[in-house]
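FORM 12-B: Structure-to-Sequence Request
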């Protein structure tokens, strides 16, 4: 399989469940062991820092993209292969989207969901190439969101072909298996 770069969206906080940090570390290690690269938000904090540190530990190239307004709050990671500072969140997303082959969302909050849904929406509208998007549903974190998406589909507001654009898996290995299949 050729080298891939996976964009990971996730929280700048660790969350209250230790399995979130375990999944972030596991994902970073698994990416590096496959020889895949990581693109993410460029921070040392929370799940972002955990996935980046683990990927670096496993020998992955890690590319961060961090807005100037978040350099101090999220604490820009200085040990990355490359960490680019941009002016806005929109520029962050644009660079992360362009540099990646697929997207994975670990647990996170508004920023994580914003990034994931923008990637899906841009692909749906044809404004960027459609790339695999996956929820890493650690400990059922995204169960309510998945139920909502099924509701949106059942009520006719989300067409089934668009709902099918978002994959989900409960484990790192399951997630990477789905991505390998989707990326070919």
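FORM 12-B RESPONSE
SEQUENCE OUT:
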């Amino acid at each position: 399989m050729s080298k891939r770069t996976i964009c990971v969206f996730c929280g700048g906080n660790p969350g209250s469940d230790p399995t979130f940090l375990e999944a972030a570390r596991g994902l970073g290690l698994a990416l590096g062991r496959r020889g895949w690269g990581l693109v993410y938000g460029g921070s040392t904090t929370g799940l972002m820092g955990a996935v980046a540190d683990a990927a670096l530990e496993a020998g992955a190239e890690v590319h961060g993209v961090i807005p100037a307004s978040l350099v101090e709050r999220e604490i820009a990671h200085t040990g990355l292969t490359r960490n680019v500072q941009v002016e806005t969140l929109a520029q962050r997303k644009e660079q992360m989207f362009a540099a990646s082959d697929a997207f994975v969302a670990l647990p996170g909050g508004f920023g994580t969901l914003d990034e994931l849904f923008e990637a899906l929406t841009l692909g749906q509208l044809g404004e960027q190439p459609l790339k695999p998007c996956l929820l890493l549903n650690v400990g059922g974190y995204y169960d309510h969101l998945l139920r909502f998406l099924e509701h949106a589909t059942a009520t006719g507001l989300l067409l089934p072909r668009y709902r099918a654009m978002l994959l989900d898996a409960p484990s790192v290995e399951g997630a990477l298996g789905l991505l390998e299949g989707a990326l070919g």
